[in-house]
Amino acid sequence: MKRARRAAPGPLPVLGLLLLGALPGLWTVLLRREAAALPEPRSPAGQPPGRWGWGRSPAARGEPGGGGQKTFRTLLAVPAAATDREERDGEERLAATDSRPPAGTASPVERGIFWSRELEEQVPPGFAAEEAAAWLSAARAARVASLERGGCGRSSNRLARLSDGSRACVRYGINPEQIQGEALSYHLAGVLGMQERLPPMALALVEARGRQWEPVREELRGSHWAEGAVVSLTRWVDNLTAVVAPAPWGAEAGAGRRLQPLSAGELVGLPPSQLVELVQWSDLILFDYLTANFDRLVSNLFSLQWDPRVMRRATSNLLRAPDGGLVFMDNEAGLVHGYRLLAMWDPYNEPLLRSVCVFREGTARRVAELHRRRSAAAELRRRYRAREPLWARLGFLSERQAELLQARVDFVHRHIAHCRAQ
């Protein structure tokens, strides 16, 4: 009896077996496609080479200075080449979600380019107008009880102890335009609404036989100050400490790299203390651009060409008060001396200004008003004459310098409008 022949398998079981055998290969292909979509490994700073970084502070690298700053730039994992539209849309939604502040956290920025009111309220008050006016009145009336060397910059300056018990730095400029620049910068800060960041400053006339200087007549002979010279008296402030520039201007800066703009997207996740400091830095950089002051952060940037670690060190003429407020010190390079050297220093000052796209609303409003009225020099002159009795001894800006001030106000206004358009 013949054994029955086994029926051949139908087409469907055969297809199933083939698919089962192909699964390992298909899984490998899918894994490779996912790996290809991941971002390329990046440097610890999270930036490609050849650009100004947003990286770690010196403290984060175990070096002195800084303050354990986090990075500004949120590093989002966006694939190098998405394979289809759905994958791209998913990544864009993820990026949009990651750039928002955490739930329940107030945004540090309002309307895209202005620091929030809540954040501005946390900025230390600095030198209140009433306090500054009281000190200036007392300093002008007081006698100089003693003069000491050291603590006030160059060797020609002195630390004065006044008869009312207060102390002041007496600055004797290399030439009168430096004292003029110091005085005009102080009053321009008043026009801009940021004078509380500068210590109170008054002018004084050196007269060895005058009432104010009579107690230190012998010290004046050893100072080599010219009789009748105009000096500045700046209130001495105790317990000031050095300030290291934060990102994007600080630790990761290097020669030949480009400054990245400080904008709202870079502020997500930063602690309040850093945000409060950045509010003050935004005013400082705008102020230094208007005055063309090269003797602060700009001088550090210039020094990068031979000192690549200079941005990890203290910023020139900038100190921090015990309450965390920044103090804009020694502004004698501003407006007069700085305007003579624009060609040399603007290649550093202008990129610094462009690196800021978040501003105090009050500062932006004052800039807009000075731009609209074309009144920058007129407002400065009015305030200077009203508040400085010795203004005529040094004079005011030349016509050309007044035009430069207005042009720089106009440039700042256009930059703010550009940031708003972004």
Write a structural description.
With 422 residues, the protein is an alpha+beta fold. The chain folds into two domains: 109-124 and 240-421, no CATH class; 129-235. It contains 14 helices and ten strands. It has helices at 11-37, 85-98, 117-120, 129-141, 176-192, 217-223, 272-291, 297-303, 337-340, 342-354, 361-373, 376-387, 391-394, 399-421, and strands spanning 109-110, 114-115, 144-148, 158-162, 167-171, 201-205, 230-235, 241-244, 314-320, 326-328. A five-stranded antiparallel sheet has the order 3-4-5-7-6, sandwiched between helices. It is globular and about 60 Å long. The termini are far apart. Mean pLDDT is 78; it is low at 1-9 and 11-104. Residues 83-95 have a biased composition (Basic and acidic residues).
Q: Topology, pairings included?
A:
Blueprint: H1 11-37, H2 85-98, E1 109-110, E2 114-115, H3 117-120, H4 129-141, E3 144-148, E4 158-162, E5 167-171, H5 176-192, E6 201-205, H6 217-223, E7 230-235, E8 241-244, H7 272-291, H8 297-303, E9 314-320, E10 326-328, H9 337-340, H10 342-354, H11 361-373, H12 376-387, H13 391-394, H14 399-421
Helix pairs in contact: 5-12, 7-10, 7-14, 11-14
